[in-house]
Amino acid sequence: MPALHIIARLHAFPEHHIIASVKSTVQKSSESTLRAGFHSRGVLPHIKKEGASYFVTFRLAGTLPKEVLIRFKAERQAILADALAGRRPLTWQEQEELFRWYSARVDKYLDAGHGDCWLASPEIASLAANTLQHHANKRFILHAWVVMPNYVHAVLRPLPDWTLTKILKSWKGFSAREINRKLKLTGKPLWQTESYDHLIRDEEDLQRSCHYTINNPVHARLCKQPEDWKWSSAYRATQ
To answer: Which of 58, 99, 134, 233 has its CA 20 to 30 A from that of 212?
Structure first.
């Protein structure tokens, strides 16, 4: 998204006004909207469609300083402003715009290694990777995944009786308990509470999301080829 476009929309929709709009117009989570519809956790809207696949990201707590998080939220809310003003779900174009913004801004910042990079430890990264795969083909179809030093990407399709929210809660809850035990961490959360998710539109979008996921370590200059990164579906596919 061009910088001038973001700035213009930020001036048109001040952050405090947009956040207030989110809270007043977006549905709070219920069992039905967790399966299909437009709902929120915190101030970030989430779009669900039963039987669909999703690109998701969850990151370690504290990886985005407060001032950076505030700036990113303002940019994100500017992208969402038109949908919120019309009290409607995001269009596919708006979802694509949000996805491009997230990958260009948030991932780039995280890849710089800010905050605690607990997942840079091979032992901890392996624990997170095994957690992602544990219930594959039982609770979800796992198309692609990668564990980075301070965040996780996954592309998945929930199976019947399992919502994306339940799967993320299971992943984050189990891994947090095990990682905190190994690192002897107490008194603060391991993962950021809210996750990012992108509803995948079609086969082309699915392939693009999978390609983006497995190439993250290459873009972050952690390896030369996707299959070189041991904590990814690209590597596991070669084993």
So the answer is: 134
pLDDT digits (tens, 9 = 90+) for 152-192: 999 999 999 999 999 999 999 999 999 999 999 887 899 98
- What is the spatial distance between Cα 82 and Cα 103, in angstroms, rounded to a whole number? 21
- Asked whether 145 and 226 are in contact (CB, 8 A), the reply is no
Looking up tokens 């990264």 gives 125
Residues sharing a CB contact under 8 Å with residue 56, sequence separation 6 or more, in sequence order: 153, 154, 155, 156, 164, 168, 195, 196, 197, 198
Token representation of residue 36: 């299909």
Q: Length of the chain in residues, anyone?
A: 239
Q: Compute the distance between CA of residue 226 and CA of residue 224 in angstroms, rounded to an integer.
A: 7
What's the distance, CA 222 to chain centroid? 20
Q: Are 136 and 142 in contact (CB under 8 A)?
A: yes
Measured distance CA(169)–CA(180) in Å, rounded: 16
Q: How confident is the model at residue 76 (pLDDT cuts 50, 70, 90)?
A: confident
| Token pair recorded at residue 119 | 């997942």
Helix (H, G, I), strand (E, B) or coil at 194: coil
Residue 26 CA to residue 81 CA, distance in Å, equals 12
CA dist., res. 157 & res. 130, Å (int): 18
Say what the pTM is.
0.73
Amino acid 197 reads D
Q: Which helix (H) or strand (E) holds 197?
A: strand 196-199
Encoded amino acid at 213, one letter: T
Task: Report how far residue 204's alpha carbon sits from residue 180's, in angstroms, rounded to the nearest whole number.
Answer: 38
In one letter, which amino acid is 48? K
